[in-house]
Protein backbone atom coordinates (compact mmCIF):
# COMPACT_ATOMS: atom_id res chain seq x y z
CA UNK A 1 0.00 0.00 0.00
CA UNK A 2 3.03 2.32 -0.25
CA UNK A 3 1.80 3.90 -3.52
CA UNK A 4 -1.40 4.91 -1.69
CA UNK A 5 0.62 6.37 1.16
CA UNK A 6 2.78 8.40 -1.22
CA UNK A 7 -0.25 9.64 -3.15
CA UNK A 8 -2.04 10.65 0.07
CA UNK A 9 -0.17 13.99 0.07
CA UNK A 10 -2.45 14.88 -2.83
CA UNK A 11 -5.36 14.99 -0.36
CA UNK A 12 -3.98 18.10 1.34
CA UNK A 13 -3.46 19.73 -2.06
CA UNK A 14 -7.03 18.85 -3.04
CA UNK A 15 -8.32 20.24 0.26
CA UNK A 16 -6.46 23.52 -0.37
CA UNK A 17 -7.74 23.66 -3.94
CA UNK A 18 -11.35 23.30 -2.74
CA UNK A 19 -11.17 25.66 0.28
CA UNK A 20 -8.82 28.46 -0.85
CA UNK A 21 -11.40 30.20 -3.08
CA UNK A 22 -13.52 30.80 0.04
CA UNK A 23 -10.74 32.61 1.93
CA UNK A 24 -10.28 36.36 1.47
CA UNK A 25 -7.16 37.76 -0.16
CA UNK A 26 -4.65 39.53 2.03
CA UNK A 27 -5.83 43.11 2.73
CA UNK A 28 -2.34 44.49 2.14
CA UNK A 29 -2.15 42.64 -1.20
CA UNK A 30 -5.53 44.03 -2.28
CA UNK A 31 -4.58 47.59 -1.36
CA UNK A 32 -0.87 47.69 -2.29
CA UNK A 33 -0.76 45.43 -5.34
CA UNK A 34 -4.30 45.76 -6.70
CA UNK A 35 -5.05 49.30 -5.49
CA UNK A 36 -8.60 48.22 -4.57
CA UNK A 37 -9.55 49.88 -1.28
CA UNK A 38 -13.11 48.56 -1.24
CA UNK A 39 -11.99 44.92 -1.59
CA UNK A 40 -9.39 45.62 1.11
CA UNK A 41 -12.13 46.83 3.50
CA UNK A 42 -14.27 43.75 2.73
CA UNK A 43 -11.32 41.43 3.40
CA UNK A 44 -10.55 43.19 6.70
CA UNK A 45 -14.20 42.90 7.78
CA UNK A 46 -14.22 39.21 6.84
CA UNK A 47 -11.01 38.56 8.79
CA UNK A 48 -11.53 40.78 11.85
CA UNK A 49 -15.28 41.34 11.96
CA UNK A 50 -17.33 44.51 11.72
CA UNK A 51 -15.98 47.77 13.10
CA UNK A 52 -13.87 50.75 12.23
CA UNK A 53 -10.65 49.48 10.70
CA UNK A 54 -9.43 52.81 9.32
CA UNK A 55 -6.25 52.64 11.45
CA UNK A 56 -5.27 49.33 9.82
CA UNK A 57 -5.99 50.73 6.34
CA UNK A 58 -3.87 53.80 7.14
CA UNK A 59 -1.00 51.50 8.20
CA UNK A 60 -1.27 49.59 4.93
CA UNK A 61 -1.29 52.89 3.00
CA UNK A 62 1.89 54.00 4.82
CA UNK A 63 3.46 50.65 3.90
CA UNK A 64 2.44 51.20 0.27
CA UNK A 65 3.96 54.69 0.18
CA UNK A 66 7.18 53.44 1.81
CA UNK A 67 7.38 50.54 -0.67
CA UNK A 68 6.86 52.83 -3.65
CA UNK A 69 9.48 55.39 -2.56
CA UNK A 70 12.19 53.09 -1.24
CA UNK A 71 12.32 50.20 -3.70
CA UNK A 72 12.82 49.79 -7.40
CA UNK A 73 12.64 46.63 -9.46
CA UNK A 74 16.09 45.22 -10.25
CA UNK A 75 17.09 42.62 -12.79
CA UNK A 76 19.27 39.68 -11.74
CA UNK A 77 22.48 41.24 -13.12
CA UNK A 78 21.65 44.56 -11.44
CA UNK A 79 21.22 42.76 -8.10
CA UNK A 80 24.63 41.09 -8.55
CA UNK A 81 26.30 44.40 -9.46
CA UNK A 82 24.59 46.51 -6.76
CA UNK A 83 27.19 47.21 -4.01
CA UNK A 84 24.57 47.82 -1.30
CA UNK A 85 23.15 44.30 -1.82
CA UNK A 86 26.52 42.53 -1.99
CA UNK A 87 26.57 41.17 1.59
CA UNK A 88 22.93 40.07 1.48
CA UNK A 89 23.74 38.20 -1.73
CA UNK A 90 26.79 36.54 -0.13
CA UNK A 91 24.73 35.46 2.87
CA UNK A 92 21.94 34.10 0.66
CA UNK A 93 24.35 32.13 -1.55
CA UNK A 94 26.15 30.76 1.52
CA UNK A 95 22.89 29.67 3.16
CA UNK A 96 21.53 27.99 0.04
CA UNK A 97 24.86 26.28 -0.72
CA UNK A 98 25.19 25.12 2.88
CA UNK A 99 21.67 23.73 2.78
CA UNK A 100 22.44 21.75 -0.38
CA UNK A 101 25.80 20.44 0.86
CA UNK A 102 24.93 19.83 4.54
CA UNK A 103 24.67 16.06 4.08
CA UNK A 104 20.92 15.52 4.42
CA UNK A 105 20.68 13.97 0.94
CA UNK A 106 23.51 11.54 1.76
CA UNK A 107 21.76 10.61 5.02
CA UNK A 108 18.51 9.87 3.16
CA UNK A 109 20.37 7.96 0.46
CA UNK A 110 22.46 5.74 2.79
CA UNK A 111 19.97 5.31 5.64
CA UNK A 112 18.48 2.17 4.04
CA UNK A 113 21.93 0.55 3.98
CA UNK A 114 22.59 1.51 7.60
CA UNK A 115 19.22 0.06 8.67
CA UNK A 116 19.90 -3.09 6.65
CA UNK A 117 23.36 -3.48 8.20
CA UNK A 118 21.83 -2.94 11.66
CA UNK A 119 19.98 -6.22 11.08
CA UNK A 120 16.52 -4.66 10.90
CA UNK A 121 13.95 -6.97 9.34
CA UNK A 122 13.27 -6.09 5.69
CA UNK A 123 9.62 -5.32 6.37
CA UNK A 124 10.56 -2.93 9.23
CA UNK A 125 13.00 -0.76 7.22
CA UNK A 126 10.28 1.24 5.38
CA UNK A 127 8.67 2.05 8.74
CA UNK A 128 11.99 3.16 10.21
CA UNK A 129 12.46 5.35 7.12
CA UNK A 130 8.99 6.75 7.71
CA UNK A 131 10.12 7.50 11.28
CA UNK A 132 12.91 9.67 9.84
CA UNK A 133 10.35 11.69 7.91
CA UNK A 134 8.20 12.07 11.02
CA UNK A 135 11.26 13.25 12.98
CA UNK A 136 11.86 15.95 10.38
CA UNK A 137 8.22 17.08 10.49
CA UNK A 138 8.17 17.21 14.30
CA UNK A 139 11.50 19.03 14.49
CA UNK A 140 10.25 21.63 11.95
CA UNK A 141 7.19 22.20 14.16
CA UNK A 142 9.47 22.48 17.19
CA UNK A 143 11.66 24.95 15.28
CA UNK A 144 8.69 27.24 14.66
CA UNK A 145 8.17 27.50 18.42
CA UNK A 146 11.89 27.94 19.20
CA UNK A 147 12.67 30.52 16.51
CA UNK A 148 10.93 33.37 18.35
CA UNK A 149 12.79 32.55 21.54
CA UNK A 150 16.32 32.01 20.21
CA UNK A 151 16.31 33.65 16.77
CA UNK A 152 17.27 32.33 13.34
CA UNK A 153 21.01 32.86 13.73
CA UNK A 154 21.30 30.74 16.90
CA UNK A 155 19.18 27.91 15.47
CA UNK A 156 21.04 27.93 12.16
CA UNK A 157 24.50 28.01 13.74
CA UNK A 158 23.57 25.51 16.47
CA UNK A 159 21.94 23.18 13.93
CA UNK A 160 25.02 23.14 11.71
CA UNK A 161 27.38 22.58 14.67
CA UNK A 162 25.28 19.67 15.98
CA UNK A 163 24.91 18.21 12.47
CA UNK A 164 28.68 18.40 11.98
CA UNK A 165 29.25 16.63 15.31
CA UNK A 166 26.75 13.92 14.38
CA UNK A 167 28.44 13.38 10.99
CA UNK A 168 31.83 12.95 12.69
CA UNK A 169 30.32 10.38 15.11
CA UNK A 170 28.48 8.67 12.25
CA UNK A 171 31.73 8.33 10.31
CA UNK A 172 33.32 6.70 13.38
CA UNK A 173 30.39 4.33 13.98
CA UNK A 174 30.22 3.27 10.33
CA UNK A 175 33.98 2.64 10.34
CA UNK A 176 33.75 0.49 13.48
CA UNK A 177 30.49 -1.29 12.71
CA UNK A 178 32.24 -4.59 11.87
CA UNK A 179 34.13 -4.64 15.18
CA UNK A 180 31.26 -3.91 17.59
CA UNK A 181 27.76 -5.22 17.00
CA UNK A 182 26.11 -2.31 18.87
CA UNK A 183 27.64 0.28 16.53
CA UNK A 184 24.86 -0.41 14.00
CA UNK A 185 22.22 0.74 16.45
CA UNK A 186 24.27 3.76 17.44
CA UNK A 187 24.45 4.70 13.73
CA UNK A 188 20.66 4.48 13.48
CA UNK A 189 20.27 6.79 16.51
CA UNK A 190 22.75 9.23 14.95
CA UNK A 191 20.77 9.30 11.70
CA UNK A 192 17.63 10.23 13.62
CA UNK A 193 19.53 12.91 15.55
CA UNK A 194 20.98 14.34 12.34
CA UNK A 195 17.50 14.69 10.82
CA UNK A 196 16.17 16.32 14.00
CA UNK A 197 19.04 18.85 14.09
CA UNK A 198 18.50 19.52 10.38
CA UNK A 199 14.82 20.25 10.98
CA UNK A 200 15.47 22.49 13.98
CA UNK A 201 18.38 24.37 12.35
CA UNK A 202 18.88 24.66 8.58
UniProtKB/TrEMBL annotation:
Main location class: membrane
Q: How does it sit in the membrane?
A: Multi-pass membrane protein
The protein's location, in the record's own words, is: Membrane
Query: Is this entry keyworded Ligase?
Result: no
Name the domain of life this protein comes from: Eukaryota
The record's annotation in SUPFAM superfamilies points to: MFS general substrate transporter (SSF103473)
GO cellular-component term (any):
plasma membrane
Which chain positions lie within coiled-coil regions?
Answer: none
Give the Major facilitator superfamily (MFS) profile domain ranges.
1-202
List the Pfam families: Sugar_tr
| Keyword annotations from UniProtKB, A to Z | Membrane, Signal, Sugar transport, Transmembrane, Transmembrane helix, Transport
Cleaved signal peptide residues: 1-20
Per the UniProt record, which residue ranges are transmembrane?
6-24, 89-112, 124-147, 154-176, 182-200
- Which GO molecular function annotations are given, in alphabetical order? D-glucose transmembrane transporter activity
Name the InterPro entries on file: GLUT, MFS_dom, MFS_sugar_transport-like, MFS_trans_sf
Q: Which GO terms describe its biological process?
A: D-glucose import; dehydroascorbic acid transport
Q: What is this protein called?
A: Solute carrier family 2, facilitated glucose transporter member 7
- Tell me what organism the protein belongs to: Dryobates pubescens (Downy woodpecker)
Amino acid sequence: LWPWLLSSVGLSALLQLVTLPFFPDSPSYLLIQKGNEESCRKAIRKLWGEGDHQAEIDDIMKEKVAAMTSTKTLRVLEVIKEPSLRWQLYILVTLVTGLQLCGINAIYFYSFEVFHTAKFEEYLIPYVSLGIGLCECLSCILCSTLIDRFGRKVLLLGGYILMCSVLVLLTVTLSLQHQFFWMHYFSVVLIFLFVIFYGIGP
